[in-house]
Write a structure and sequence with these properties.
Helix content is 63%, strand content 8%. It is an alpha/beta fold and 290 residues long. It is globular, with a radius of gyration of 25 Å.
């Protein structure tokens, strides 16, 4: 009986040893190798971004999401930027718009009924500004509030056309003014773009990652360029090309110059090519003929 028990114990130890050597150790080695490869790739991505000021790659998806036929029709017919993209980029853009719609809550205020048009236009705005980045989500945003017209804001007790509230994770917009911003596409004023730039800017300041590094370092390059070229800065102000609100503070300056970059890129490039290049680099905006 004792001998049989010893034999069973020995067989069990051999089985355990076999499991360890044939399965557990190889799996552990594979997991360690994957971790090391991940760290090496991540380090190389940061090195590449610091050297070339752009991500190594932007578009990697396991499964591309699709919009409904109505949503896609709105995107094609009512969002001119989408039509400027190559067919390949249109597929990626559609996927990102669909992702935004799936992850974001839309709330109509003052009895405003949320429509597919509203959702697609807002989602496309976010997608446009983040299209140069692999990480296209805004972590400080999970809802969009739409008012019919300009609304009273409790943040500073004034009437607003738009605002970003990071504590509530919300962008608040006047739908009337969103439509005005897109119907007049060469006045360098678009409230939806303006507020989404604020959201991206604050989000990047609160995150650690490739997108944040490229965006914040890009803005630092712009600030450094203007500080070291005072005559250029004076020419910006004197030109009246950027509206006066741009000079309120650094956040408004960034939102206004990106609005201008999106709406009148040819004039921007012609008047201020150095600044145009820096904005394009900061957004990694290498598509749609920008």
């Amino acid at each position: 009986m004792l001998l049989q028990l010893l034999l069973q114990t020995k067989q069990q130890e051999e089985l355990e040893r076999q499991l360890i050597y044939e399965y557990i150790i190889p799996i552990g080695v594979v997991l360690i190798a994957i971790f090391v490869v991940y760290k090496v790739v991540r380090a190389f991505q940061f090195f590449y971004a610091s050297r070339f000021k752009k991500p190594l790659f932007n578009h990697v998806y396991f499964r591309l999401k699709k919009l409904t036929s109505l949503q896609l029709s709105i995107l094609k017919n009512e969002y001119s930027f989408f039509r400027k993209l190559s067919p390949k980029h249109q597929v990626y853009f559609e996927h990102r718009v669909a992702t935004f719609l799936n992850e974001t809550t839309f709330i109509g205020k003052q009895e405003l009924q949320i429509t597919e048009q509203m959702k697609v236009i807002i989602a496309a705005t976010s997608t446009l500004l983040n299209f140069g980045f692999r990480n296209y989500r805004i972590k400080l945003l999970d809802k969009v509030l739409l008012y019919p017209k300009a609304f009273y804001s409790r943040l500073n007790e004034n009437m607003h056309k738009g605002e970003f509230n990071p504590s509530y994770k919300a962008i608040v917009l006047s739908w009337e003014d969103v439509l005005d911003g897109y119907s007049i596409d060469n006045d360098n004023f678009n409230v939806a773009i303006h507020e989404f730039v604020h959201a991206i800017h604050l989000d990047c300041l609160n995150q650690k990652g490739l997108k944040a590094a490229i965006f914040i370092n890009g803005f630092s390059d712009i600030a450094h360029f203007l500080e070291t070229h005072p005559d250029y800065k004076s020419r910006l102000v004197a030109s009246k090309y950027f509206r006066d609100y741009a000079y309120t503070n650094q956040f408004e300056f960034l939102s206004v110059i990106i609005e201008t970059f999106i709406e009148t890129p040819e004039e921007f490039r012609s008047q201020f090519p150095e600044l145009y290049k820096l904005v394009k680099q900061m957004l990694n905006f290498n598509f749609a003929n920008y």
